[in-house]
Amino acid sequence: MKIAILSRNKKLYSTRRLVEACKLRGHEVRVIDTLRCYMNITSEQPELHYRGETLQDYDAVIPRIGASITFYGTAVVRQFEMMGVFPVNESVAISRARDKLRSLQLLSRDGVGMPKTGYAHSPDDVQDLIQMVGGAPLVIKLLEGTQGIGVVLAETRKAAESVIEAFMGLNANILVQEFIKEAGGADIRCFVVGGRVVAAMMRQAPEGEFRSNLHRGGTATLVKLTPKERATAVKAARVMGLNVAGVDILRSERGPLVMEVNSSPGLEGIEMATGKDVAGMIIEFIEKNARPHRTKTRGKG
Fold first, then answer.
1. The model scores a pTM over 0.90
2. Strand arrangement of the beta sheet that strand 37-40 belongs to
3. Which of 25, 68, 231, 264 could serve as a FRET partner for 145 with CA atoms 20 to 30 Å apart?
4. What tens digit of pLDDT does each residue of 59-70 get?
């Protein structure tokens, strides 16, 4: 098979592992810088160009699109879809997952457990907003934040009011969520491929920190999932429409709660913690499912 990997940096661990896994299984693979792609949007014969050449005859594309280039990146994936190339994750699903508010509303609609979450525009409604999610302590998140950036723990009601009003004063879009104290600064990253959890790790925040992101000094260890946690992760990925997803779950007194669904989950932490060949599982999924024009949306919407 001929496989394209959309990535801005071929030296990144995740990109390198996917290239290795492709070659190991006898596939032709190429890393393509997403932002160097450009498109000929023509009826009946859509084209994708890259560094002066036409990209053609690809069987599958693996999008590794950073949050900062979501708009252009999903346009490139959509163009691949219109050309009949099988995407590991479809453009619509990536857009869904990247919009934190939209993704939480979709999860809520399908009955997926998640922390109580509030969203408001006017600073006049701050006190009721805080009350709505159960009061302080609570977590305030920038909608556009990634890797724990733009996430604040407000331990008192007064602190919560000050932080929310400050963000609103900057016209920033924020979510206000209940703080799950019993999680103890830990969350679980479930790696879903093709409708099943293939690997899972527990990420623990360092002393004095509540964010468990590995980029912020968190540590990762192997974890055994309960059947309910496994089912929750699979359902969350399905609601987003993602074939490959990183689903972040908190353990709470009322069961597993989904914090976020990531459409381009990193491979380094999960492979190191579990010792599993997750990259190989992604390529195996492509081998079983890649067919021309085999997308739910076919570039629509």
1. no
2. 37-40, 47-50, 53-54
3. 231
4. 999 999 988 899
